[in-house]
Structures are given as structure tokens and as C-alpha cells.
Automatic annotation (TrEMBL):
Keywords: Cell membrane, Membrane, Transmembrane, Transmembrane helix. It is a multi-pass membrane protein. This is DMT family transporter. The keyword Lipoprotein does not apply. It comes from Bosea massiliensis.
Amino acid sequence: MHQTAPLSEAARLRDRRLWRLAFAGMVLAMLIFGSNFVVSRHAVLNGLTSHDLLALRFGIAGLLLLPGFVAGGLKSCNEIGWGRGVLLAVMSGFPMSYLLLTGVTYAPAAHGATIGPGLVTVISIIGSVALFGAIITRQLIVGIVAVLLGLTCLGIAGTTHTNPSILFGDLCFVGVGLIWGMYPLLVQLWRLDPLKATSVVAVLSMAYLPFYALFFFRGFDVAPWWVIVLHGINQGVLNVILGLWLWSVAARRMGPAVAGRFPPTIPIIGTLLAIPVLGEIPSGLQVAGIGLIIAGLFVASWRRSPRPAA
């Protein structure tokens, strides 16, 4: 009996320390995902194109994850299957990333940080009901309505803005949400390892590199070398590998009820960071739209944590 108490206390302290590490990892993942819209728009405003960022994103991530992909088996597409792998690559690889990086070329970063996550949340809720039998509650309905109203406000603001290209960028972000929203649902439905799925997406998306080399490569002098390295690390390492790894590990430790409260911070981070970095001051209607989307995300994703077992 004298040995049980110290062991129990040590286990409790260990769990608390791991939970704090998971919390810090989740915060860092949200900072990575939220700031990506701002960093990517900064890149296209300073000489790099969406094609350059795509090549950096999948060239670096694909090469880093290629050994694990090969070890998992070429015949089985890293134990996922080629049919599933190609579908995941469409939803989270080149097509989705092309729309995202094209969107930040024409529209403010704050729009990308709100429209994409907003639609992903709506699709995730609808998909959870259709695929997993989740129950639609009043809270979810209120959250979805708020997100859709916010998207409407941003759409109206885009059509009345002096720069008509903003609406085109917003439509690209809508495409991002529609495509990307099904990715986590399929990973959950097929019970795939998130990092295996990521390696499949990154490696298969390397098929874009020959087209980039033939039609879009402009040489390495389009920007200072440190700018290319910086955005290569942001696109290929932080967003594709580190962010997803931190998210998956932290979500497993914290549980879905707590982990689901973090994604609504992505538009907050993106909107606030765009003001000092890019000088993007949203209009009144844009503020209303962004606010409605953020509020809808919080309402839709907020769930009570399960009570500990007796």
C-alpha cells in the first residue's frame, strides 16, 4: 500500500504534463494553419506565384515523406490503396492547394482564413450526420446558419468592392472548403493513419513538378534565396508535416470534445495577423462576415467534455 500512492501520484503528474504538452502543440498547430494564409499572400505580393508555392509545398514535403511512403509499400500505396490515395490527393493535395494559393493571390488573407474553415465545418457536420449517424442539435444548426450568413456578407462585400478580383479569390476559397471538407471525413471513415495519408497526398502531388518545370519555372532569381527557403519551410514542412502531426497527436491526447474547440481560432489568427503584416483593414461588412463565421464556428464546434468515469 505504501508503494501504490507514489506511483499513482507520479502517473497523475505525468498525465498532466502530457496534457499541457498537447495543449501547447495544438496552439502551435493553429498558429501554423492560421498564419499560412497571411504568409502565402505575403509571398505572392512579393514576387512568388501560386505555382512557385505549390512546387515548394509538394517538392519539399514529398521528398521528406517519400522514404516512409516507399517503406509502406508502392503496390499498396503506403497501405492505403491507390484508389483511395488518388482521391485523398485530389482533396488535400494539388487541386485544393492550387485553389488556396490562387485565392490568396486575389483576395485578402482574412477571407481565406474564414471562408475555408467555415465551409469545412459545415461539410464536416453534414458528413458526420450522413456517414456516422451524428445527431443534429439546435447548437449545430445555429452555428451553420451563422457561418452561412457570414459567407453571404463576405460575398456581398466582394461584389461591391472596388477590386472585382476579390470575388474570384473568395470563390477559390469556397472551392477549398468544398474539397477539403471531405478529406477528414474520409480519413475517419476509412480509419487511416493521418501521417500515412499525408505522405500519400504529398508524394502523389509531386506529379505536378514536371509540369511546373516545363511551363512555370522562372529560375531561382525571382526572389532572394532566403525568401524561397523561408516559404519552402512554411509550405512543405510547417503546414504539410509539422502542423498535421501536432494536430493528430494533440487531438488524441486531449480528446475530440476539447480538440474541436481549437479550429475556430484559425480565422481569428489569420484576420488579426493580416492587419500588421499585410495592412489589410477589413471593411464594416467584411468585419460582420468574419465575425459571424468565427462565432458560428465556436458555436458549432463547442461540445461538453465527457465526465470522467467514476
